[in-house]
Amino acid sequence: MLTPQDIKNITAAGIATGREVFATKEDITGLEQRLGQRLDVLTTAVDAYAKKADTYYQEMTVLLHKVQRMEEWIRRAAEKVGINYG
Hints:
single chain
């Protein structure tokens, strides 16, 4: 398994030669074999978090629209009763 120092060395070598370092399919397969179930658990956790974040942002978008609509109603009502709503 790669240590943090190994990763720094690989990254430094890529920077020194001006080449970018990409993971190949074999690298990923080897990583999955070494990590086994832990990688599945990690990807499941990341997917679950991404879904929760997406749901949260959708809810905030709906809430923002609702607040803007209510603010418009308040502004119109204030005009009709002669109150300055600014």
